[in-house]
Amino acid sequence: MKHRCYALVIGINNYTNNTTLTNAVNDALGVAQTFRELRYEVECLENPTFDKFTEAYDSLRVISKNYTVIVIFFAGHGMMSNASDYIVFSDAENMDIHGGMKAVHKSYRIDDIYYCCPIKLFEVSKN
Fold first, then answer.
1. Which residues contact 26 (CB under 8 A, 6 or more apart)?
2. Which helix (H) or strand (E) holds 80?
3. Cβ neighbours of residue 81 under 8 Å, at least 6 residues apart?
4. N- to C-terminal Cα separation, the chain
5. DSSP 3-state of 65
6. Which residues share a beta bridge with 55?
7. What is the DSSP string of 59-97?
8. What are the distances in angstroms from CA 19 to CA 1, 89, 105?
């Protein structure tokens, strides 16, 4: 069985309302290159807004059944709010205000991303 592998790679340095980072995009580009060398199909998003990520994420949910392996890699800011962990996108509100409650509106809960694709995490072959 031939495995089809896909990686969605995200790197964010430039935040509108949060501290700028210096290496997240370079880290993502390096990871994307490694996945390409491993023959993954790769989509790489640099400094995406919440809406741009949502577009890529929704597309991934549609095409997920075509792949045996899917990886989502993120380099950038994250935060915890109300006992949940979030990935913070470039247009999120300031994470330090009101315990991050406003930033949540332009962020994704990690648990929600984890459950996006109804696929097997791994398959063991008995051959």
1. 11
2. strand 78-81
3. 99, 100, 101, 103, 104
4. 11
5. helix
6. none
7. HHHHHGGG-SEEEEEEES-EEEETTEEEEE-TTPPPTTS
8. 46, 12, 18
Task: Quick: pLDDT tens for 48-107.
Answer: 998 999 899 889 888 888 888 888 899 998 877 777 777 888 888 777 765 556 566 566
**pTM of the complete model:** 0.81
| Residues 121, 107: Cα–Cα separation, whole Å | 24
Q: What's the CA gap between 34 and 38, in Å, rounded?
A: 6
Instruction: Tokens 């089809």: give the residue.
Output: 4
Let me know if 32 is exposed, middle or buried by CB neighbors in 10 A (0-12, 13-18, 19+). buried
Taking every pair of C-alpha atoms in the chain, what is the biggest distance, in angstroms? 55
- DSSP three-state, residue 16: coil
